[in-house]
Amino acid sequence: MAYFDNAATTFPKPDSVYEFMSEFYKNSGANVGRGNYGMAQSAGALLKDTRKRIQELFHCPAKQVVFTPTATIALNIIIQGLIKKGMKNIYISPFEHNAVTRTLHYYEQSGEIKVVQLHVHKDLSYDLLRIRYQFDEVKPDAVIVSHASNVIGLIAPVEEIFAIAKDYDAVTVADMSQTAGLVDTNVGLNTFDFAVFAGHKTMYGPTGISGFVMKPEIVLEPVIFGGTGFESANQNMPNSLPERYEMGTSNIVGLAGLNAALKWLDEQGKDTVWKREVEHRRRLLSIIEQYDFLKVVGNNDQQKFVGIVSCVMNGISSDSAGGIFDRYGISVRTGLQCAPLAHQFLGTYPAGTIRFSVGYFTSEEEFNALERALEEIEDCLMG
What is the pLDDT of residue 154? Predict the structure, then answer.
């Protein structure tokens, strides 16, 4: 099987991730913050070290790291918390995941908020001047931007967008699910209020461990409640961070895997990981563009991308194409990829696309397998 679905979750992970998860869970798999005995203290030390490594990765030592099971839960905590604080006018990019858009749609239906899309040209460039005009017309309370599209991999100029947003005192939220650990970003800048990460994607950790980085002075209304191992007599959620947003049992084995992944990323170096991604995307594009029955969508050499390429197949729906690729041992993602607004922007709605995505460990054998599969598919289509 040749794996080209790294945008869903990177695979495989570094060997050190698998090894440390097993080792730590066998020897120190106690509950964090629920006891003073040795194993619980060991788990607590791992949690503290992982927070510190996240801060170092994002260049934000003064900001708070909050862990959640998924990036979707992280986004819900942030977005619903902001709306409960009275945020009304919320701007988003055309490339947001349903984790953002479904949450906003729920509140927009009842008239509690207004959602506006940031202006992006058809050449995939963000029109910063037009965005400023948009903010002049309707003052933003919050601006949410997917740092990289999970459909086409386009990297948004979040630093510039957030700098403009701060001129209007808006709260800013970067969804870095497709970029954390891959695209070096200074989340320590004052223009970043929240940054969401998915541990199992470009950070090369396991599933079940994600979270967000936030300015500690911002107070969100809690939307999930439960035990924290802290102030147990208090029936309100604690005001202290990160306890206010970290409820329930921590995924200690997931944290162990993320900790090992962060060490691995540090050992490889950010430049090395990014250059490998760029090389692999270039190789992927060169293969796909050899075949006339595939048409790449959402690509422009003037823009920056992570390792994602979307295309459509002549005369065959994306869902049917997924089955064809599977028969040839090629793993791809088809359909709308949980981002219908992106496909409306790209003109591929409602059928969607075939999405190929590479990662650090995509091998030459996998690229060769893709080429062989495309040759055979072309022969079948022509025959």
Answer: 98
For the stretch 353-365, pLDDT in tens is: 999 999 999 999 9
Rounded Cα distance between 364 and 371, Å, is 11
For the chain, give the number of residues: 383
* Residue 295 tokens, joined: 């048409």
260 close to 14: Cβ distance less than 8 angstroms: yes
In sequence order, which residues have a C-beta less than 8 Å from that of residue 358 and are 6 or more positions away? Answer: 4, 6, 277, 280, 281, 283, 284, 307
205 pLDDT higher than 80? yes
Write down the residue that tokens 């202290």 correspond to.
240
Query: What are the structure tokens assigned to 231, written together?
Result: 């102030």
* Domain boundaries defined on the chain: 2-11+269-382, 15-267
Give the bridge partners for 294, in sequence order: 313
* Domain range 15-267, CATH class: alpha beta
Phi-psi group of 209: left, alpha or beta (phi > 0 → left; psi -120 to 50 → alpha; rest → beta):
beta
> Rounded to an integer, what distance in angstroms lies between the CA atom of residue 29 and that of residue 35?
13
Q: How far is Cα 258 from Cα 14, in angstroms, rounded to an integer?
A: 11
Q: What is the CATH number of domain 2-11+269-382?
A: 3.90.1150.10
Cα–Cα distance for residue pair 297/309, rounded to 1 Å: 8
Local confidence band at 42 (pLDDT 50, 70, 90 cut-offs):
confident
How would DSSP label each residue in 96-134?
Answer: --HHHHHHHHHHHHTTS-EEEEPPB-TTS-B-HHHHHHH
